[in-house]
Write a structure and sequence with these properties.
Largest sheet: 3 strands, parallel
CATH class of the domain at 71-142: Alpha Beta
CATH architecture of the domain at 71-142: Ribosomal Protein L15, Chain: K, domain 2
Radius of gyration: 32 Å
Shape: elongated
Order of helices and strands: HEEHEEEHE
Number of strands: 6
Distance between the termini: 68 Å
Strand order of the largest sheet: 1-3-5
Length: 143
């Protein structure tokens, strides 16, 4: 097989639609544009969502959903991620340096997922109940 001999499977592609090429083509006269109106004319254009002056659907429907503005400033760290760190005293700066959290994060929380095998001290970080118990069981503490 050569790259210049590859062709699509038989019947998988259809010929380009040739509009306005006479009555026998099936798309002669109006060329599939219907009769009159903005869409039938050359240069006919309107904004996306425009409904001819009727209140557009995106304005008729109520707004839904919510995007938290503080979400970007909050971070989560799993317990097993703390094993990778060489520092025994873990702060926000240590987590940022290890790229476990984003640089925009101002508050981080340690979540119980996995296990920790060594004693660490959390300074200025929040921790869930389970994570706190696991750290204390390993000989560390959460301040």
């Amino acid at each position: 097989m050569k790259m210049n001999t590859i062709k699509p499977a038989e019947g998988s592609t259809t010929a380009k639609r040739r509009v306005g090429r006479g009555i026998g083509s099936g798309l002669g006269k109006t060329a599939g544009r219907g009769h009159k109106g903005q869409h039938a004319r050359a240069g006919g254009y309107h904004k996306v969502g425009f409904e001819g002056g009727q209140m557009p659907i995106q304005r008729r429907l109520p707004k839904v959903g919510f995007r938290s503005k503080i979400k970007a400033s909050r971070g989560e760290v799993y317990l097993y991620d703390l094993n990778r760190l060489s520092a025994t005293e873990i702060t926000l700066e240590v987590l940022k340096a290890a790229k476990l959290i984003s640089t925009e994060v101002t508050v981080a929380k340690v979540v119980l997922k996995g296990s920790i095998e060594r004693a660490v001290t959390l300074v200025g970080l929040k921790a869930t109940k389970g994570a706190k118990l696991a750290i204390e069981a390993a000989g560390g503490k959460a301040e």
